[in-house]
Amino acid sequence: MSMTSEEPSPFRPDLQSGKVALVTGGSSGIGFEIARQLGLHGAKVIISGRRQQVLDDACAALGHDGIQALGVQGDVRKPDNCQEWIKQGVAKFGRLDILVNCAAGNFLVPAEQLSPNAFKTVMEIDTQGTFNASRASFPELEKSGDAAIVNISATLQYGATWYQAHASAAKAAVDSLTRSLALEWGHFHIRVNGIAPGPISGTAGMTKLFAGGDDAMQHYMKTIPLGRLGTKWDIAMAVNYLCSSAARYVTGATLVVDGGEWMYRPPLIPREAVSQASRGLESKSRATGHAGDKRSKL
Length: 298
Ligand code: COA
Known about the structure:
The chain is of the alpha/beta class. The protein has helices at about 30-40, 50-65, 80-95, 115-145, 165-185, 205-210, 215-220, 230-240, 270-290, 290-295; strands spanning about 20-25, 45-50, 70-75, 100, 145-150, 190-195, 255. The chain has ten helices and seven strands. About 40% of the residues are buried. Coenzyme A binds next to helix 4 and helix 6.
């Protein structure tokens, strides 16, 4: 089943009406679709990114969809930049209710070749950046009275993932931050949740992973229980849910949106053989009386 980003929304079009959202890394990729879907559901959006031209193009595209958008240039690694974005956003839109921490960096490198600076770079963008933007947003989110932070995480760190020691460590720390901030900021009516996307089509991450070609992709598809790659829309709709009143009692959770991919392991025996093998075993136990013995001991 193929799915596009232009699915009709299951939500009311005024779901986020009256709200203002900042999406870091919102000028491209998953972040852009999150900003777009929050906007299509009534929010005014502020998107941050490092490249001015990309920001300008993204704001023009959002404007084309009828969304009020402001692009703010800078780097989540710099706390001053984050503060400046909030200042500019509030000057234009008057408030801040939603923060989506989506800015991230990643590349595939075997750990023995990963430079200490490369490790540090990803930790700083993903983890420190999430804290910087959250910390800078706090005074405005506190004023909102009904605020939500969503940290875009990953499933890499559940167990371990090849060649991504840096990103796995960074996302594990992001998940920890989600829980800590949820614990401390619930008092201020700020809910803090995470989303862990699985394989999402049309992203830099998937392109890097499948530079190897179609065979690798076909093999990979078999490891996704729902049988398809995710779309940016799938992630954006999960953000819309977490930032809506439907999730008003949800905080400190990280919602996995991955088609079941992270849990995958090959079946020990083929599906067709299970029932036969299992029934065969049962009738054998009945014949020898073992099953009955077990029950009588309970
Ligand atoms: N493989 C190995 N090391 C890499 C690398 C790669 N593909 N890309 C960057 N690095 C290393 C650099 O060599 C450098 O380490 P060094 O000083 O020891 O040589 C360190 O990481 C910092 O790199 P630099 O390019 O100076 O950092 P940056 O801050 O300009 O950009 C990223 C870092 C991660 C943001 C950059 O790779 C990038 O823009 N990636 C695209 C965005 C992305 O990955 N999005 C996907 C999100 S899941």
